[in-house]
Write the structure tokens for this entry.
Amino acid sequence: TFPKSVRLVEVGPRDGLQNEPEPIATATKLELIDRLAAAGVRYIEATSFVSPRWVPQMADHCEVMQNLSRRDGVTYAALAPNLRGLQAALTCGVEEIALFAAASETFSQKNINCSVAESLERFTPVLKRAQSAGVRVRGYVSCVLGCPYEGEIAPAKVAEVSKALHDMGCYEVSLGDTIGTGTPLKAKRMLEAVAREIPMDKLAAHFHDTYGQALANLYAVLEEGIAVVDSSVAGLGGCPYAKGASGNVASEDVVYMLNGLGIETGIDLEALAETGTWITRAIGRPNRSKVGVALNSR
Ligand code: HMG
Ligand code: MG
């Protein structure tokens, strides 16, 4: 059965922009974040405290975090892969971070330069430190429905890494179809394997739309009880370590589908679609939300 309401995790400012080769002004990022909040988005992944040598677009993480016009009831989160990232994030007043692991060894090496086991070891002190600072920690597992280097990924491996993050203290684990190769039945099977280890209400779906399957996959996992969905306004994005990957499922498309299912999000679809049009014009990218394009061409 479907959930009554869904919490949308807007990852556009981070996952959506991290792969942009030309520097985007910090002011544009801040305006994007505030427009999203104004549209009713209650959780925004604002930036990423990673190495600027690896991901140059996120080099202004401190400026972004420190200059947010914070609105009541909105969580502004950031990725932090190690103690150094956490420390920087804490200095900038972050209230929530996300750690990111992978269900694929090769992807882990390419993305964070260490094995899956090493990443989990590295995360343990980050989690402890975050918790003692009162900062909540979310976890990601990448490549849950396929890996750009290894191909098929066993659902058991996804379950194992998800459980490790959960047991370590992540309050929620977001399941990333990083390269968007999943299909609905496969997504359902993967989720079933994970949900045998972790309660459904601790899980989120983070689906990319590379093969145009993201909405169908979401429908499948919503039916299983997933109630947290990661998405990116205008479908912005891609991943620097997954060649050819397109962005996350577009937030506008998700909200439109959820509206049709009678599932609440608290988001103003018109305002969200306007934000998608605005940001794609600002950075010179096509709007990859079909709903956004349709609403804004009326
Ligand atoms: P490393 O090279 O193994 O670590 O990087 P290191 O400790 O040797 O540091 C290397 C350099 O980075 C050094 O600088 C450090 O000072 C610096 P240098 O001496 O070369 O000038 N450094 C840092 N700088 C700023 N902030 C930090 C930091 N840590 C080290 N926190 C590391 C390891 C993880 C840092 C690196 O591999 C990295 O930054 N990777 C970036 C990974 C990334 O951001 N990927 C994209 C996000 S994940 C994703 O998109 C998937 C997701 O959306 C889910 C899905 O779709 O599936 C979440
Ligand atoms: Mg992603």
Summary: Residues 15, 18, 48-51, 53-55, 79, 81-82, 84-85, 88, 100, 111-113, 140, 142, 176, 178, 206, 208, 239 surround 3-hydroxy-3-methylglutaryl-coenzyme A (ligand 1) (CB under 6 Å).
